[in-house]
Structures are given as C-alpha cells and as structure tokens.
Amino acid sequence: MSLRGIVFDFDGVLANSEPLHFQGFREVLAEVGVDLPRAEYYEKYLGYDDAGAFAAIAADRSLAWTDAQIGVLIDRKAVRLERLEAEQSVLFPGAADLVKRLAADGPLAIASGALRAEIVRVLEKERLDGYFVLIVGAEDAEASKPSPAPYLRAVERLAAVRTGWPDPAAYVAIEDSHWGLESARAAGLRTVAVAHTYPAETLDADLTVSNLDDLSWSRLAELIRTA
Q1: What letter does residue 15 receive in the DSSP assignment?
Q2: pTM score of the predicted model
C-alpha cells in the first residue's frame, strides 16, 4: 500500500495559535465571572472545539449554560481570536515550507476542531490556502476529537474528490495533542506527533518528531509501507 494523502491538524501543528485560543477563552470567560488557569486549559480543554470546550468548562463548574449562551461565548471568542491573529504571523517555523514540499508530492487536507473560517483566514493570510485540497473544520463533522469523525470525514472527502482510495490506513495524520492522536488512531490513520505542545515522551504515535523540518513525504510514506 502507498501513501495516498496527508491530513494535518491545524492549531498546534501548523499554527502556533493555541496561546491565542487560550487568551481568547480566558478573556471571554472572565467577562462572565469564570477564571481559566493556563495549566487547566492545556490539561483538560485544548483538544475540544470551541463548543465542546465551553460546555466542558461549564460542566466542571456546575454551570447550567444553555446552547444559546454557549453560542454567544463562541462568537465573542471568535472576534478576539481574529484580532489577536491580525497582529502577528501564527505559523510555526518551517510550517509554510513543509506544506509546499508535501503538496508537491500528494494531496493535503486539514481536520481540525477550529472553525473553518478561522483556518481559512490564517491560510489566506500566509498564502497557503491553495495547497490544501479540503478542510474539515469544527462544523463539518458530527463529533469533535477525540472522536474519529473529523478524520473519517477528511479521508472520505479526499477519496471522493482526489484519491479514489477510501481506506484510512493509506493516510497519515499529523497531530500535536493526545486527543488528536486518539482521534486519528480510532479512524485508522497512521499517526505522526509533533512535540510542539506536549513532551515527546508523552505522545503515543507511530512517529514522533521535535519539529516540522524532520518530516518529508518519503518518511511519511514509509509508515504506510511498514504497517
């Protein structure tokens, strides 16, 4: 079997935006009287999409927020995130070069818990939007990571529009978090962990690297051949 495509997580892999997400959550929550320590966010909520994170935060504090109230918080956080991103480039070193190198050899996709508009905004700003065949954002899958749904949807769509190959075992997922790796494994993809967010020794993946420069299409293809 050969490598048919690569599916990236976004925040924490290509975009160093997790600190900005945390700041957005913290500011919005402070307005409603909720404190969110940094350590708690990274330990408990980083793997969720916005709706899931706000719901989990509320549940952990016995707060009876309605879906409508959570929707307002999501909108407020989105405004803050856009402002924070406008002030700087959020890409990790080597991210743009890696995307361009890999796209020259095969199709790339994104499966993320971020909203699609947030992903597209960053990609367009960095002129990388044309290198991805498709994006599966938070609103595109019926469940968020660690559910396998985002990766299953990405593989399904890649097979439909580009590769014609629906077997997830022919695809590689590139992740930074425990939740994302669990999602990709459950979907049947081979997994790569980039130690941007958590120590390498804590990440359970087929391959773990310290930075994006360590990756190439041939190295990722080897994960498929040796499976």
Answers
A1: B
A2: 0.80
